[in-house]
Design goal:
Layout: H1 3-9, H2 15-18, H3 20-23, H4 27-43, H5 57-67, H6 74-84, H7 88-92, H8 97-124
Amino acid sequence: MDEQTSLLRLGFENSLALNCQDALKQEKYLLDTWEQILKDFKLSGTPILKMDAPRNLDELIRFVRELWPSAQDAHLEVNLLYRIDLPEHVYAGLSTTSELAMAVIIREFQKVWLRQEFSRAMGSNKAPKD
């Protein structure tokens, strides 16, 4: 299964999700997405050891897979899914931890991208200073 088919199967049908992997090759998007993931994991109560920033998407996927709560901690998993705001229809369709990690990364990337686009739009709408 190619990457686009896999992402579509995960329920991410817009161009933002399909371009996520390309965007995460840029260090700024990779690090901002990593920071968003750290923030949401911490706010959900997931214990996090000090970790070096990922250098690429593969390291980010491995990071999410290692941090994801075990099946024995259903309460923490529910808190994390709520915090990340991963749509239930997406989560229900996942069959591997790699798919789960990629779905989390795409959702967190969407938050980063939307925040940057909103900030950019708000910056261009500011009234001129006298």
